[in-house]
Amino acid sequence: MSEWNRHCGKHKGVRRGGALSPPRARRETKAGTGPRPYSAVRCVIRNDGWGAALTAMLVVLVAAGCGAPVKTADTAAPSPLPAAVGEVSLATPKEIRALIDAGKGQVVVMNFWATWCPPCVKEMPEFAKFWREFDGNGVTFLSFTADFAATKDSVVLPFMKSYEIPFPVRIMAVDNPDDLAKELPVEWDGALPATFIFGPEGALVWQTVGGTITRDLLAEKVTPLIASAKAASPAAK
Fold first, then answer.
1. Which pTM does this prediction carry?
2. What does the DSSP 8-state code read for residue 25?
3. Which of 2, 23, 88, 112 is in Cβ range 3.0-4.6 Å of 194 for a Cys bridge?
Protein backbone atom coordinates (compact mmCIF):
# COMPACT_ATOMS: atom_id res chain seq x y z
CA MET A 1 0.00 0.00 0.00
CA SER A 2 1.36 3.41 -0.93
CA GLU A 3 1.82 6.30 1.45
CA TRP A 4 -1.19 8.07 -0.09
CA ASN A 5 -3.43 5.06 0.57
CA ARG A 6 -2.32 4.98 4.18
CA HIS A 7 -3.54 8.54 4.62
CA CYS A 8 -6.98 8.16 3.01
CA GLY A 9 -9.10 6.60 5.75
CA LYS A 10 -9.66 2.88 6.14
CA HIS A 11 -11.75 1.88 3.15
CA LYS A 12 -11.37 -1.82 2.41
CA GLY A 13 -10.94 -2.80 -1.18
CA VAL A 14 -9.92 0.68 -2.32
CA ARG A 15 -6.43 0.83 -3.77
CA ARG A 16 -4.42 3.55 -5.45
CA GLY A 17 -4.65 3.24 -9.20
CA GLY A 18 -8.22 1.94 -9.30
CA ALA A 19 -11.08 4.42 -9.31
CA LEU A 20 -14.35 3.86 -7.50
CA SER A 21 -17.22 2.68 -9.64
CA PRO A 22 -18.90 5.63 -11.37
CA PRO A 23 -22.46 6.55 -10.36
CA ARG A 24 -25.40 5.30 -12.36
CA ALA A 25 -26.43 7.66 -15.10
CA ARG A 26 -28.45 10.46 -13.57
CA ARG A 27 -30.76 10.52 -16.56
CA GLU A 28 -32.19 7.05 -15.92
CA THR A 29 -35.96 7.01 -15.33
CA LYS A 30 -37.41 4.68 -12.75
CA ALA A 31 -39.64 2.05 -14.31
CA GLY A 32 -43.28 3.07 -14.33
CA THR A 33 -42.69 6.72 -13.47
CA GLY A 34 -42.24 8.20 -16.91
CA PRO A 35 -44.96 9.15 -19.41
CA ARG A 36 -46.56 6.29 -21.32
CA PRO A 37 -45.45 6.06 -24.96
CA TYR A 38 -47.94 7.16 -27.55
CA SER A 39 -48.11 3.65 -29.01
CA ALA A 40 -49.43 2.31 -25.68
CA VAL A 41 -52.54 4.55 -25.77
CA ARG A 42 -55.48 2.83 -27.42
CA CYS A 43 -59.14 3.65 -28.15
CA VAL A 44 -61.32 0.78 -26.87
CA ILE A 45 -64.92 0.22 -28.14
CA ARG A 46 -67.29 -1.99 -26.16
CA ASN A 47 -69.11 -4.61 -28.25
CA ASP A 48 -72.50 -4.84 -26.52
CA GLY A 49 -75.98 -3.31 -26.63
CA TRP A 50 -74.61 0.18 -26.80
CA GLY A 51 -73.65 -0.38 -30.45
CA ALA A 52 -75.37 2.57 -32.10
CA ALA A 53 -74.38 5.09 -29.48
CA LEU A 54 -70.80 3.90 -29.36
CA THR A 55 -70.55 3.89 -33.14
CA ALA A 56 -71.46 7.56 -33.10
CA MET A 57 -68.85 8.14 -30.38
CA LEU A 58 -66.25 6.39 -32.53
CA VAL A 59 -66.81 8.91 -35.30
CA VAL A 60 -66.25 11.75 -32.81
CA LEU A 61 -63.12 10.14 -31.39
CA VAL A 62 -61.58 9.57 -34.79
CA ALA A 63 -62.33 13.15 -35.74
CA ALA A 64 -60.70 14.28 -32.50
CA GLY A 65 -57.50 12.46 -33.38
CA CYS A 66 -57.71 9.23 -31.38
CA GLY A 67 -56.41 7.43 -34.43
CA ALA A 68 -53.61 9.97 -34.99
CA PRO A 69 -50.22 8.65 -36.11
CA VAL A 70 -47.81 7.54 -33.39
CA LYS A 71 -44.79 9.75 -32.73
CA THR A 72 -41.62 8.20 -34.07
CA ALA A 73 -37.96 8.44 -33.10
CA ASP A 74 -37.51 10.99 -35.88
CA THR A 75 -39.59 13.53 -33.97
CA ALA A 76 -38.05 12.86 -30.53
CA ALA A 77 -35.94 15.54 -28.87
CA PRO A 78 -32.20 15.14 -29.54
CA SER A 79 -30.03 13.71 -26.74
CA PRO A 80 -28.06 16.32 -24.78
CA LEU A 81 -24.37 16.64 -25.61
CA PRO A 82 -21.94 15.13 -23.09
CA ALA A 83 -20.66 17.58 -20.50
CA ALA A 84 -17.21 19.02 -21.12
CA VAL A 85 -14.54 17.97 -18.63
CA GLY A 86 -11.34 19.65 -17.56
CA GLU A 87 -7.87 18.79 -18.81
CA VAL A 88 -5.54 16.44 -16.95
CA SER A 89 -1.82 17.13 -16.60
CA LEU A 90 1.09 16.37 -14.26
CA ALA A 91 2.61 18.65 -11.61
CA THR A 92 5.74 18.28 -9.51
CA PRO A 93 5.86 19.62 -5.93
CA LYS A 94 7.77 22.71 -7.10
CA GLU A 95 5.21 23.34 -9.85
CA ILE A 96 2.39 23.05 -7.30
CA ARG A 97 4.07 25.65 -5.13
CA ALA A 98 4.52 27.92 -8.18
CA LEU A 99 0.80 27.67 -8.95
CA ILE A 100 -0.05 28.75 -5.40
CA ASP A 101 2.33 31.71 -5.60
CA ALA A 102 0.96 32.70 -9.01
CA GLY A 103 -2.48 33.08 -7.46
CA LYS A 104 -1.46 35.92 -5.15
CA GLY A 105 -3.83 38.83 -5.49
CA GLN A 106 -6.74 36.41 -5.66
CA VAL A 107 -8.21 33.84 -3.30
CA VAL A 108 -6.65 30.43 -3.94
CA VAL A 109 -8.67 27.30 -3.14
CA MET A 110 -6.59 24.13 -3.33
CA ASN A 111 -7.98 20.60 -3.05
CA PHE A 112 -6.12 17.29 -2.82
CA TRP A 113 -8.03 14.11 -3.59
CA ALA A 114 -7.91 10.73 -5.37
CA THR A 115 -10.29 8.57 -7.38
CA TRP A 116 -9.84 5.71 -4.88
CA CYS A 117 -10.72 7.89 -1.86
CA PRO A 118 -14.50 7.66 -1.08
CA PRO A 119 -14.80 10.93 0.90
CA CYS A 120 -12.87 12.70 -1.87
CA VAL A 121 -15.26 11.42 -4.52
CA LYS A 122 -18.26 12.53 -2.48
CA GLU A 123 -17.01 16.12 -2.61
CA MET A 124 -16.57 16.32 -6.38
CA PRO A 125 -20.09 17.57 -7.24
CA GLU A 126 -19.74 20.34 -4.65
CA PHE A 127 -16.40 21.47 -6.05
CA ALA A 128 -17.91 21.46 -9.54
CA LYS A 129 -20.70 23.79 -8.39
CA PHE A 130 -18.21 26.06 -6.67
CA TRP A 131 -15.84 26.16 -9.66
CA ARG A 132 -18.59 27.09 -12.11
CA GLU A 133 -19.63 30.02 -9.94
CA PHE A 134 -16.38 31.37 -8.51
CA ASP A 135 -13.36 30.39 -10.58
CA GLY A 136 -12.08 33.47 -12.40
CA ASN A 137 -14.25 35.74 -10.26
CA GLY A 138 -11.62 36.57 -7.71
CA VAL A 139 -10.82 32.91 -7.08
CA THR A 140 -8.19 30.54 -8.45
CA PHE A 141 -9.19 26.91 -7.97
CA LEU A 142 -6.48 24.22 -8.00
CA SER A 143 -7.25 20.51 -8.00
CA PHE A 144 -4.62 17.81 -7.45
CA THR A 145 -5.08 14.05 -7.46
CA ALA A 146 -2.83 11.43 -5.85
CA ASP A 147 -3.57 8.85 -8.56
CA PHE A 148 -0.61 7.30 -10.39
CA ALA A 149 0.49 9.25 -13.44
CA ALA A 150 0.34 6.03 -15.47
CA THR A 151 -3.43 5.83 -14.85
CA LYS A 152 -4.20 9.18 -16.47
CA ASP A 153 -5.97 7.70 -19.51
CA SER A 154 -7.23 4.47 -17.94
CA VAL A 155 -8.57 5.83 -14.63
CA VAL A 156 -8.46 9.60 -14.14
CA LEU A 157 -9.98 10.76 -17.43
CA PRO A 158 -12.79 8.14 -17.39
CA PHE A 159 -13.50 9.11 -13.78
CA MET A 160 -13.77 12.79 -14.73
CA LYS A 161 -16.15 11.98 -17.56
CA SER A 162 -18.31 9.79 -15.31
CA TYR A 163 -18.60 12.51 -12.67
CA GLU A 164 -18.63 15.38 -15.21
CA ILE A 165 -15.77 17.23 -13.52
CA PRO A 166 -15.43 20.56 -15.37
CA PHE A 167 -12.22 21.93 -13.86
CA PRO A 168 -8.59 21.09 -14.74
CA VAL A 169 -6.96 18.39 -12.64
CA ARG A 170 -3.24 17.87 -12.09
CA ILE A 171 -1.80 14.50 -11.13
CA MET A 172 0.87 14.93 -8.47
CA ALA A 173 4.20 13.62 -9.72
CA VAL A 174 5.25 12.48 -6.25
CA ASP A 175 4.76 9.17 -4.43
CA ASN A 176 5.34 10.28 -0.85
CA PRO A 177 3.15 13.04 0.64
CA ASP A 178 6.02 14.07 2.90
CA ASP A 179 8.00 15.17 -0.15
CA LEU A 180 5.11 17.36 -1.26
CA ALA A 181 4.50 18.79 2.21
CA LYS A 182 8.05 20.17 2.26
CA GLU A 183 7.19 22.45 -0.67
CA LEU A 184 3.81 23.66 0.58
CA PRO A 185 3.26 26.64 2.92
CA VAL A 186 1.01 24.48 5.13
CA GLU A 187 1.29 21.85 7.85
CA TRP A 188 -0.14 18.69 6.33
CA ASP A 189 0.62 14.98 6.71
CA GLY A 190 -0.85 13.97 3.35
CA ALA A 191 -4.27 12.81 4.60
CA LEU A 192 -7.02 12.93 1.99
CA PRO A 193 -9.23 14.73 1.23
CA ALA A 194 -7.58 18.04 2.11
CA THR A 195 -8.62 21.56 1.18
CA PHE A 196 -6.69 24.79 1.78
CA ILE A 197 -7.70 28.40 1.20
CA PHE A 198 -5.14 31.17 0.78
CA GLY A 199 -6.00 34.84 1.02
CA PRO A 200 -5.02 37.46 -1.59
CA GLU A 201 -1.73 38.09 0.25
CA GLY A 202 -0.79 34.43 -0.13
CA ALA A 203 -1.26 33.48 3.54
CA LEU A 204 -3.17 30.37 4.57
CA VAL A 205 -6.48 31.43 6.10
CA TRP A 206 -8.46 28.18 6.36
CA GLN A 207 -8.01 24.44 5.91
CA THR A 208 -9.82 21.17 6.48
CA VAL A 209 -8.48 17.61 6.31
CA GLY A 210 -11.05 14.85 6.15
CA GLY A 211 -13.91 17.30 6.66
CA THR A 212 -17.04 17.54 4.55
CA ILE A 213 -16.91 20.18 1.81
CA THR A 214 -19.97 21.81 0.28
CA ARG A 215 -20.37 24.61 -2.22
CA ASP A 216 -22.04 26.76 0.46
CA LEU A 217 -19.20 26.25 2.93
CA LEU A 218 -16.61 27.28 0.36
CA ALA A 219 -18.68 30.30 -0.68
CA GLU A 220 -18.95 31.35 2.97
CA LYS A 221 -15.16 31.20 3.35
CA VAL A 222 -14.12 32.95 0.13
CA THR A 223 -16.77 35.69 -0.23
CA PRO A 224 -15.36 38.02 2.46
CA LEU A 225 -11.83 37.40 1.17
CA ILE A 226 -12.88 38.39 -2.35
CA ALA A 227 -14.53 41.54 -1.00
CA SER A 228 -11.43 42.54 0.97
CA ALA A 229 -9.22 41.95 -2.08
CA LYS A 230 -11.42 44.19 -4.23
CA ALA A 231 -11.43 46.90 -1.56
CA ALA A 232 -7.63 46.83 -1.40
CA SER A 233 -7.10 46.94 -5.17
CA PRO A 234 -5.89 50.22 -6.77
CA ALA A 235 -9.01 50.35 -8.94
CA ALA A 236 -11.16 50.61 -5.83
CA LYS A 237 -9.30 53.68 -4.55
1. 0.68
2. P
3. 112
